[in-house]
């Protein structure tokens, strides 16, 4: 772990060295990586503009180490949005990745959904089990069917402390909360932060306050507090876990 300001990195993933920065769609390249997660064994990177999540089966130790497989694409050399059509195995600008026990969550931002695998995937293109924010795994409309407790618009981040699930529903100016781990597509959230109801989505609804949000982007929780990166309000809100 770094211990001083400006400390140099040891190596870089996505590049062959520490002095290059070209984008690439390969097993060892990246294009606009937006998140990184480790579940104790595997390393996951949300490779957003390649419309995939790269996965290493073990922690890499050198620059340019190739990923073992990719979610969102059938192989490690394609990077188009929803390659072959919207489905359980395709993505559009994934932003964040999270594992909770045996489950894996990916914020599939431009498809307005959170993809969920009930078992940690092990091969490229492996299909998700279900999707939050959509009624099924073949739709991708923003606020599908109308703004509600079960819809999403450009979700940026997903987090869980092991029981509850929190989603930064950026396009709807809110954070949705599930009181228990969801189990099916389209499952409704149990509460909302940043809006007075499940059917409103106004930035700083009612005026800037301790309960308003403006493009929330990231969320984190521990046993007692919830932290929300309230992006356009230039602040991080801290509140008790609901």
Structure explained in plain terms:
The chain has 242 residues and is mainly beta. It has one domain: Neuraminidase (6 Propeller). The chain is built from no helices and 15 strands. The strands form 4 sheets. It has a 4-stranded antiparallel sheet, with no helix packed on it. It is globular. The two termini are 32 Å apart.
Topology (elements, then pairings):
Layout: E1 33-38, E2 43-47, E3 52-56, E4 69-71, E5 94-100, E6 103-108, E7 113-117, E8 130-132, E9 157-160, E10 165-169, E11 174-178, E12 191-193, E13 216-221, E14 225-230, E15 235-240
Antiparallel strand pairs: 1-2, 2-3, 3-4, 5-6, 6-7, 7-8, 9-10, 10-11, 11-12, 13-14, 14-15
Q: Roughly what percent helix?
A: under 10%
Report the span from N to C terminus. 32 Å
Strand order of the largest sheet: 1-2-3-4
Averaged pLDDT, please?
97
Shape: globular
- Radius of gyration equals 18 Å
CATH homologous superfamily label: TolB, C-terminal domain
Would you state the CATH class?
Answer: Mainly Beta
Order of helices and strands: EEEEEEEEEEEEEEE
CATH topology: Neuraminidase
The major beta sheet can be summarized as: 4 strands, antiparallel
Number of helices: 0
**Oligomeric description of these chains:** single chain
The structural domain count equals 1
Number of strands: 15
CATH-defined architecture? 6 Propeller
Class by SSE composition = mainly beta
Approximately what portion of the residues adopt beta-strand conformation? 25-35%
Catalogue the unreliable spans.
Answer: none
Core attributes:
mainly beta, Neuraminidase, 4-stranded antiparallel sheet
């Amino acid at each position: 772990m770094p211990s001083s300001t400006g400390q140099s990195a040891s190596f870089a993933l996505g590049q062959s060295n520490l002095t290059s920065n070209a984008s690439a769609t390969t097993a060892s390249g990246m294009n606009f990586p937006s998140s990184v997660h480790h579940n104790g064994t595997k390393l996951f990177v949300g490779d957003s503009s390649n419309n995939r999540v790269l996965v290493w089966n073990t922690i890499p130790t050198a620059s340019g180490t190739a990923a073992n497989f990719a979610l969102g694409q059938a192989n490690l050399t394609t990077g188009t949005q929803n390659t072959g059509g919207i489905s359980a195995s395709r993505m559009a600008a994934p932003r964040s990745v999270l594992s909770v026990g045996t489950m894996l969550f990916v914020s599939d931002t431009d498809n307005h959904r959170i993809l969920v695998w009930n078992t940690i995937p092990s091969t490229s293109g492996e299909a998700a089990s279900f999707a939050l924010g959509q009624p099924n795994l073949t739709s991708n409309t923003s606020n599908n069917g109308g703004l509600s407790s079960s819809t999403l618009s450009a979700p940026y981040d997903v987090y869980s402390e092991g029981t509850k699930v929190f989603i930064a529903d950026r396009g709807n100016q809110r954070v949705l909360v599930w009181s228990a781990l969801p189990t099916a597509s389209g499952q409704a959230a149990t509460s909302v932060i940043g809006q007075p109801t499940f059917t409103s989505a106004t930035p700083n609804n009612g005026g800037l306050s301790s309960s308003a949000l403006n493009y929330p982007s990231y969320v984190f929780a521990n046993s007692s507090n919830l932290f929300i990166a309230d992006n356009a309000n230039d602040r991080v809100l801290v509140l008790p876990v609901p």
